[in-house]
Amino acid sequence: MQNNSSSTLKVFILLAFFTTTTISTSISLNSINMADNAEQSSSSPSSTPPSSGVYIVYTAEPSGGAEPESFHLSTLSSVLGSEEAAKDSLVYVYKNAATGFSAKLTPEQVAQIEQQPGVLQVVESKPLKLHGRGGAKNMKI
């Protein structure tokens, strides 16, 4: 009976590992795709200055049952000056494996947003190149 319990535990650990790896890879690849799309669309006129880049802003869970997107727009609005500018800057809202958002920001705006309550970390979203034969098309993502 103990051998069966040990096997079950091993299967559970393997599933937990693969689930965590899959979520992490999925977040990274989604961030890469969104950053690429945001950089391509940034050539069109917008309220964001041309020296901006795409940054991932990790935040604490919103308190009081607030919706993540509302909390993120409020945080961005406090730096950008209006909700409309925040919506124009927003690239993506993370609410499953991590809480945060991606937005087009200038270095000055990054410095300001890092000081906002609930902001844990701000990192630049950089495209990464996958190595291997066939690239992403063989990953069936």
From TrEMBL:
Top-rank taxon: Eukaryota
Keywords, alphabetical: Signal
InterPro entries reported in the protein's UniProt record: S8pro/Inhibitor_I9, S8pro/Inhibitor_I9_sf
Signal sequence segment: 1-24
Protein's UniProt keywords contain Manganese: no
Gene3D superfamilies referenced in this protein's UniProt entry, alphabetically: Peptidase S8 propeptide/proteinase inhibitor I9
Inhibitor I9 domain boundaries: 54-131
UniProt-recorded name of the protein: Inhibitor I9 domain-containing protein
